[in-house]
TrEMBL record:
<dbReference type="InterPro" id="IPR036431">
    <property type="entry name" value="ARID_dom_sf"/>
</dbReference>
<dbReference type="InterPro" id="IPR048615">
    <property type="entry name" value="KDM5_C-hel"/>
</dbReference>
<dbReference type="Pfam" id="PF21323">
    <property type="entry name" value="KDM5_C-hel"/>
</dbReference>
<dbReference type="Pfam" id="PF02373">
    <property type="entry name" value="JmjC"/>
</dbReference>
<protein>
    <submittedName>
        <fullName>Uncharacterized protein</fullName>
    </submittedName>
</protein>
<dbReference type="GO" id="GO:0034647">
    <property type="term" value="F:histone H3K4me/H3K4me2/H3K4me3 demethylase activity"/>
</dbReference>
<dbReference type="InterPro" id="IPR003347">
    <property type="entry name" value="JmjC_dom"/>
</dbReference>
<dbReference type="Pfam" id="PF01388">
    <property type="entry name" value="ARID"/>
</dbReference>
<feature type="domain" description="ARID">
    <location>
        <begin position="76"/>
        <end position="169"/>
    </location>
</feature>
<dbReference type="GO" id="GO:0005634">
    <property type="term" value="C:nucleus"/>
</dbReference>
<dbReference type="GO" id="GO:0006355">
    <property type="term" value="P:regulation of DNA-templated transcription"/>
</dbReference>
<keyword id="KW-0408">Iron</keyword>
<dbReference type="InterPro" id="IPR004198">
    <property type="entry name" value="Znf_C5HC2"/>
</dbReference>
<dbReference type="Pfam" id="PF02928">
    <property type="entry name" value="zf-C5HC2"/>
</dbReference>
<dbReference type="InterPro" id="IPR001606">
    <property type="entry name" value="ARID_dom"/>
</dbReference>
<feature type="domain" description="JmjC">
    <location>
        <begin position="282"/>
        <end position="448"/>
    </location>
</feature>
<dbReference type="GO" id="GO:0000785">
    <property type="term" value="C:chromatin"/>
</dbReference>
Length: 635
């Protein structure tokens, strides 16, 4: 039936080179972590690996998300952001604005107009050189369709775009910049705070419909058949069509059942607790069963994060033709493994982990305005950058076709993206061998720089493992010990700067101190207000902000604050104190000055360990484990 699809596209696409695919023997396939350490990329299991699909297609129900493919490309994202900000700005200054403005019965694209004017030196240069006619032709207009084109383009630019380009933020307008609607001729000051308040939510995928696997397969097959005229389309043709849609921003929408939790819906792999007579115990207990892999004895998170959804608990993905996963790295730069249970192929594009920083540099170069508004843009899986564009910028990109029954491994900080060729069902989870730990440390630094929420506390994880040191492999003990040393040094430096800033304890500027068991506090209650890290070794809270959210500190006596802190923090828990759920402001030591404007006398210093002695002792214990045994992994 392949001959039925004969559409020819002018669009060209140069497929990236193929990543290597491995076919392990039965013996090599026995231990997942040992094999992953020896290889990279895609894995075709031995012929004996045929796990039973454990879900019922008629009773399995899930919700989808709608993906407007034409909005995922770089140009599309930039245009959407520009138009949203332009619309909000003009609305705030009381000027009616519509994106569907026409020039002589033809729609005017304000983003393209803005781009062309700036490509020709800016508004003043275009006016001086009388370039409006040239710009009109670039926009698809010409003299025969619009005799007053130049005047209309200039008027539109002056009315809507030029004030937006020129608006400034007065020094005295950083607070209380409320703006009332006013006439078009009234002088209006538009402040950045106003724009921020009016911003729409970050771009994302709206909810779709509710399906069973059976009904979604019918929808997916009908879509592909209607689009191509047949279900049997060469993989290369589907790939070419996909990138043509992205590049030309065509109005094609699909649905994707993504990030479905196995803890609620069930796994495609058999599990021991759901065993029946016809299910193989071999499949349920096998190391490559994704319910088991993240809990491998040599995985860092196997004990610490046994219930982190999507990281140690698998997620499911139900795809259809063109359903997309945009460029991203895994949370905390962990490894990931994806298994395609059944259905059509999944196409992957990947960038090596050591090129992650260069990838981000190129992405920021291509989309500076988007990153300015959303520093963690690449964490939201909403942007598709063409592989050929990346390759032209010197970024190595590799490609993999994943077939049913095959695994795809992504390595730490390896950016990846892709799409589905038709209906399919996949399952994925993260895992953390010992050599992931340095990548996790780097991720903490990178997350802090962009204000990205942490899924868990890296320092807490290390201390948890150190407290359970007996039974660790020499390799894991060595990695944990080395990174604990980093934790100690970073915390020492932070405490040193903190004490110097507060002149504590000589001036007693800090209200009080207390030892706190941070691990008993929900992560969201101990998140630094500024950098969004999850505090564990230390933190600072503001008593004033806890009592009065508006920080009217003059109404709080020092005695009142001390009594409140003692009752709520130190004496409120028989286990040694616990952060109240009502604490308003929390910060790490580094960002004390960004916490709030309340005086230091209203601050409370919290710490997990006194002088970090526990960590140092645990580190010594880990080193004794490391060097008291043979360590063949070093060679």
């Amino acid at each position: 039936m392949e001959e039925h699809y004969t559409k020819k596209l002018k669009f060209s696409f140069q497929p990236p080179p193929e990543a290597y695919t491995y076919c392990p023997t039965e013996e090599e396939f026995r231990d997942p972590l040992e094999f992953v350490r020896a290889i990279k990329s895609s894995i075709i299991p031995p012929s004996s690996w045929k796990p039973h699909f454990a879900l019922d297609s008629n009773s399995f129900k899930f919700d989808t998300r709608i993906q407007a493919l034409g909005e995922l490309g770089v140009d599309a994202r930039l245009e959407l952001q520009f138009l949203e900000n332009l619309e909000k700005y003009n609305s705030l200054r009381g000027v009616p604005f519509t994106r569907s403005c026409n020039v002589s019965k033809k729609p005017l694209n304000f983003f393209q107009l803005y781009r062309e004017v700036n490509n020709n030196g800016g508004f003043s240069s275009v006016v001086k050189k009388k370039l409006w006619m040239r710009i009109g032709k670039k926009l698809g207009l010409n003299k025969t369709t619009c005799t007053s084109m130049s005047n209309q383009l200039r008027t539109a630019y002056e009315r809507y775009i030029l004030p937006f380009e020129k608006y400034k933020i007065p020094d005295d307008c950083l607070r209380d910049c409320s703006l009332k609607r006013s006439s078009e001729t009234s002088p209006v000051t538009v402040c950045k705070d106003d724009i921020e308040k009016e911003k729409v939510d970050s771009y994302g995928f709206p909810p779709g419909s509710h399906y069973t696997l059976t009904t979604f397969k019918i929808k997916a097959d009908n879509f592909k058949k209607n689009y191509f005229g047949t279900l049997a389309v060469p993989s290369s043709q589907v790939e070419l069509e996909f990138w043509d849609i992205i590049k030309r921003r065509r109005a094609v929408s699909v649905e994707y059942g993504a990030d479905l939790q196995t803890s609620k819906l069930g796994s495609g792999f058999p599990s021991a607790r759901h065993m029946t007579d016809h299910l193989s115990h071999y499949d349920a207990s096998h190391g490559w069963n994704l319910n088991n892999l993240p809990l491998h004895k040599n995985c860092v998170l196997s004990g610490f994060g046994s219930n982190i959804s999507g990281m140690t608990v698998p997620w499911l993905y139900v795809g259809m033709c063109f359903a997309t996963f945009c460029w991203h790295v895994e949370d905390h730069y962990t490894y990931s493994v994806n298994y395609l249970h059944k259905g059509d192929k999944k196409i992957w594009y990947g960038v090596p982990g050591h090129e992650g920083g260069n990838f981000e540099t190129v992405a920021r170069k291509l989309m500076p305005a988007l990153f300015e508004e959303q520093p963690d843009l690449l964490c939201h899986l909403t942007t598709m950058i063409h592989p050929n564009v990346l390759m032209q910028q010197g970024i190595p990109v590799y490609r993999i076709e994943q077939n049913p029954g095959e695994f795809v491994i992504t390595f730490p900080r390896a950016y990846h993206a892709g799409f589905n060729q038709g209906f399919n069902f996949a399952e994925a989870v993260n895992f953390t061998p010992a050599d992931w730990i340095p990548w996790g440390r780097q991720c903490v630094s990178d997350y802090t720089a962009i204000g990205r929420h942490h899924v868990f506390s890296h320092d807490e994880m290390l201390c948890f493992i150190a407290s359970k040191a007996v039974g660790l492999t020499p390799e894991l003990a060595a990695y944990v010990a080395a990174d604990l040393y980093t934790s100690i040094q970073l915390e020492k430096e932070a405490r040193k700067k903190f004490l110097a800033y507060t002149n504590f304890p000589r001036d007693a500027k800090i209200l009080q101190t207390a030892s706190i068991e941070f691990e008993k506090i929900p992560d969201e209650k101990r998140t630094c207000k500024y950098c969004r890290c999850t505090c564990f070794l230390s933190a600072v809270v503001c008593i004033s902000c806890d009592i009065y959210a508006d920080c009217h500190v003059e109404t709080i006596s020092l005695w009142h604050a001390q009594s409140f802190a003692r009752d709520r923090l130190v004496g409120g828990d028989s286990q040694g104190g616990c952060l109240s759920p009502s604490w308003k402001h929390v910060s790490c030591l580094t960002h004390l000055t960004d916490l709030c404007s309340c005086p230091l006398s209203m601050k409370f210093l919290l710490y997990r360990f006194t002088a970090l002695l526990f960590i140092a002792q645990a580190r010594d214990k880990l080193y004794s484990l490391t060097f008291s045994k043979d360590t063949p992994w070093k060679s």
